[in-house]
Amino acid sequence: MPEQDAMLSLTLSPDRPLADQIVTGIKRQIDDRLLRPGSRLPSIRGFAESHSVSRFTVVEAYDRLVAMGYLQSRRGAGFYTAPTRAEASEPAPSTDHKRNEELVWLIRRLLEAGEDTILAGGPWLPNSWLDEAGIRQSLGALARKNGTHLLEYGNPFGYLPLREHLVLLLGELGITAHPGQVDDPGYYNMFGNLRLQGVEMLAVPRNADGPDIATLEKLATAHRPKVYFTQSVMQNPTGTDMSPHVGFKVLQTAERCGFFVVEDDIFCDLQVKATPRLATLDQLNRVIYARSFSKTLSGSLRVGFVACAPHIANELADIKMLTSITTSQFTERLIYLMLVDGHYRKYLARLHERLDAARANVVRAFEGIGLELFAEPNSGMFIWARFPQIEDALPLAEAAARDGIMLAPGVVFRPHLERSPWMRFNVAICDDPRVQRWLARAAADR
Question: Do both 368 and 222 map to the same domain?
């Protein structure tokens, strides 16, 4: 498709930076349908030359338009107007549920899948990999204990012995906390929830070594966000780790621009060798650290925790009491028993070995099939991959579902639900020859 002209009238003005003028001008052209969905914009170099501005100015403007949902960046192909623009600047909570359709499509099919469905893109480990025997053993021990834990509400901050033990686990990561800084709210699907609440989300592209710092800094400077959500280790869905250098840059930007960082570390126990988290570098100054045991123990044991500054922990406890009173003291005590009896660490060691073997097998198989990997993860259960010739993975996921295989298309992982060629794969499931045969057939049909 030929490039669109996208000529704008730009003037030097101390009150209106050139990047702002470019953003406003291209937004107006898109809103007025002068630039149709799917139109290609001039290259950064071409725009800069034709308008006599610096390439850095054009990069800033294009990046802001991508974050706002007006443009899409296609690797190696340039910038295009988005097929369906996400109205991020003016959230509409009353109708925003419609934009969660793809997300609900995936979650519903994952939860309603029959025994014959292969959850190749699923977010959890196979039941056969989990420690059912250990859960039953701890359940029996807890049931035999006298007390009111089977009947009463818990503490708003959570079961104290569990919080004290969590402090020790955080210490192993180099994070200094005390029991008053740890809370245990439930884990939820964040993007979908934020959309329902009408929260404006700004998308920061993820590189193999972490978030794109240049984009993060520009968005933070321009919009002054309150919170940045991220995963520094085994990021879902890419499986990649944030480098220490990028981590320092994130925290510097947070300090300079005044936002907090929510670090989701739900897959922490799947990592073989612990690496520094943002909370390790920051020591809970601007970082709010969240973690759960649902991915390694059981999806039915909805126990997670938050480590943060004391004043934030108190505010979260107030919100928790207003919304759910407390979490289950019974499940908190059950988690505590499983963590302290020594059984859990042995179980994790076996789990790490199985995941390492499955990951190596799946990477080899995917490379043979012709799938392009975003990066090869060192730990965890996810691989982010794509077929190079496919621009939108959603139709492929729909075709796979008809054959009894659930894939996770990239659209559901994007803040504004833009099309994506990428897919998340669970190595614990994709070691199954049936998944690999289906993907091989799909590659041959392209």
Answer: no
